Amino acid sequence: MSAVLAASTPGGLLLPAAVLVPFVGMMLALVLGARNVQRVAALTIVAGLGVAIAIVATAAQIAAPLEYVLGAWAPPLGIVLRADGPAIAMLLAIAVVVVGVGLYASGDFATPKGAPEERAPTVYWLLLLAVWGSLNLCFLSGDLFTLYVALELVTFAGVPLVCLDGKGETLRAALRYLVFALAGSIFYLLGAVLFYGETGTLDITMIAERAHASPATFAAIGAMTAGLLAKTALFPLHLWLPPAHAGAPPAASAVLSALVVKGSFFIVVRLWFDAVPALPGPAAAQLLAALGAGAIVVGNVLALRQERLKLLVAYSTVAQIGYLFLMFPLALDPATGALLRGDALTAGILQAISHATAKAAMFMAAGMIYAALGHDRIADFAGAARAAPAAVLAFALGGVALMGIVPSGAYVAKKLLLDAADASGQWWWTALLQGGGALTAAYVVLVLFRALARPQEPVAPKKPADRTQAVATLALAALSFVLAFATLGPLPDGLLSSAFSSKELLATAAILGAGALLAAGLGRRRDETAPAGFARRTALGIGRAFECADTMLRRWPVAGISLLAITSLFVALMAAVR
Amino acid sequence: MIVDAFYAAPAVLILALAVYTTVVRGTFAASVGFLAYGLLLTITWVQLHAVDVALTEAAIGAGLTSLLLVRASHRLRESEAAIRAETPGLPLKLAAGLVAGIVGGGIALAVLTLPEPAPTLAPQVAANLAATGVGNPITAVLMAFRAMDTMLEAIVVLLALVGVWSLAPDRAWGGRQGPRYNADPDGILAFIARVLPPIGIVVGIYIFWIGADHPGGKFQGATVVAAMWLLAMLAGLTDAPPIRRRWVRALLVAGPLAFVAVGIVGVYAAGTFLGYPPDAAKALILVIEFALMPSLAFTLGLVMAGAPERPEEAA
User: Fold this and answer.
1) Is B145–A73 a contact, with Cβ atoms under 8 angstroms apart?
2) What is d(CA A386, CA A372) in angstroms, rounded to the nearest whole number?
3) How do the domains of chain B map onto residue ranges?
4) Over the stretch B198-216, which tens digit does the pLDDT of each residue have?
5) Residue whose C-alpha is closest to residue A196's, from B94, B118, B265
6) What number is the ipTM of this complex?
7) B213: how many CB neighbours lie within 10 A of its CB?
8) Is 0.90 topped by the overall pTM?
9) Could you tell me the maximum CA-CA distance found in chain B, to the nearest angstrom?
10) Hey, is the C-beta of B130 within 8 angstroms of any chain A C-beta?
11) Nearest to A221 by CA among A263, A265, A277
């Protein structure tokens, strides 16, 4: 039996509140209906943000993680909610993004006075709250089965957002997402059952004490990891993400891309770092990061090849999800081969947060550009900077933040990971981290180049920009850019003081320059059949090859085989390399 | 020998039906295979003395899910040919078979290596059963030890309904779900829909009522009641209510909200959220169950009714 019994800490009651405030808000909004849906949602968002801030303040005060034992039934019988550093950081970041997205959505999904209740706005506000409560449960639960319930909630709240506009193609995208996410759920549940059969508990802290290297444990970790990757859409399990995230209305895309995929990602972190830190071992961690590397290369190149801005942003999410998994091999303790909660984990969480803020801003910006121009074909963006200046600026800020340029959150994360890679001699990740920024820079440069071009005839915005939307979008983009100053964990000395040195400025110039070169070579052009020189033809061939590979991997049978193959590969690597 | 066959026969049939359901070409045939598969699973759960699981499997796994599948396959009849045209070639099939075999075999091996006797929380549940006031250990787990999961599962069902509603065409938002069924008033369906519901509702409420001390409970009972309601709808004896109505929505959320409210009462009465004071534990659990049962039956019935299709005025 466990020596340390879980006990509720001061302020512990805030944890069930963080989960239930959004759900209670959702239920009240459903009953009150019509205009009240948005009103109740607004009040709930304010209350939920208050709870998140109170949790941060309490944790700072007691200088320890918050815990709450539900119903006073201590694990293994009962369930404990726990808010440690990463959970609190995610909790606060998600609350802030929900505020930003909510402000933006108040422009698109408002119900006028006296108007009858409409489908899209009602469903949107209900699901925004539901997604929020579900994600908070992902961050706070310390129990493998409660986390399964959280995954179910995230899926059921996320899927209808995909087909909110009701078109046939978005329905197809939603169904794709639903079926693949449910396959992921089954894999996760299977692993949880194996853990219970092996250890007699579902509590993560107790599993950490009891789990040992055994076939059942490896099978459990392999199945759960693969299932969670399917839900996170990590390459090559990303078949559902581009159509789902690109087809939804902008305010829903922002929720799906910035928030929803972070839930299953965070559970991978919980599983690997907290439940079984010593068991996956170096080979499985390398595989996880290798999938991330694949995501970065394929996602970024495919982003360059898109004709429409929303699909570009969706593929950029495919790539950014890859970055989140680079931390795993860099968090290994060289002496024991176990995962350590150190700077690499901080970097990974920081990346998740900066992607949440930046990607929400980029989808919102894409929505504003669409509203101003009446289309989102990148090739015809000339004059967009005039027609929608705030949106283009927000897109640029968000994009630059993702590249890892000072002083963005992604920059600090990259620095921490580079240090960890140097310290452990994993030069291949150093190379990827240095090159990855240029890949991200490429599509940002491409979009900005087109948007800043002088149009042949002046472009007048089709619709004046909504000021609230502009402010919310710019605020989220700016936040992702200055996130380094807002990081919650202590950072190593000298990390930021050197940020404005000539060396860093040179690095920034190199990233942008390489990105511009990539964009010039691989970026989609209006007329790709025009005669071109050897260099351009080669680049075009490479781009087409990537497109073919992506189309193949995103076919149903291939993605299903990938899911099973990744499961077996994880188990084999864990069992073989100890 | 006979006893072995008694246990082995369902196991072999279950495997055979699983294979049949996977390889059979028609969607309808696969749905029927799945129904039979669920019923056999129910028998197996009874043989394993897991009567609560058996009831759930019968009500939700075999019953509700198969009904959904059969109705879906009915709607998919026209696109069946197009789906078959997308069937992958032999190399992909072989690859899929290979990886599925590896994963399936690996899981089977992993299960065989699990410790014997299996580590279990059953003794702890039994030791703490008295504090909950209920006699059925499963109910104690669902309503006391892991009450948070049950509360959230009720919200999952509600979210599923919001998802079904979201598929409505814009003009039908607020209206009634599914088509208006017009069965022959003197036909067999209308006859069954008159005779069966009184019995079914009593059975459903009985399953719910004995759940505190014996196998049964609100989810299974609510499923049976929802099925009776659906039967009456299919026979044209009653209609789904317009989803714009406030009473509809209030009934849907009453159960989950009551659950949260009792949880908050626990903060004051027992010092923790979802805690029950020992002398009032059973009463509070019953309050939740009584509030949850109608909400669940209503929600499940509406989930089965399909997306809103008819504007209210055209009803």
Assistant:
1) yes
2) 10
3) 1-87, 121-315
4) 888 898 898 888 887 888 8
5) B118
6) 0.93
7) 13
8) yes
9) 65
10) no
11) A277
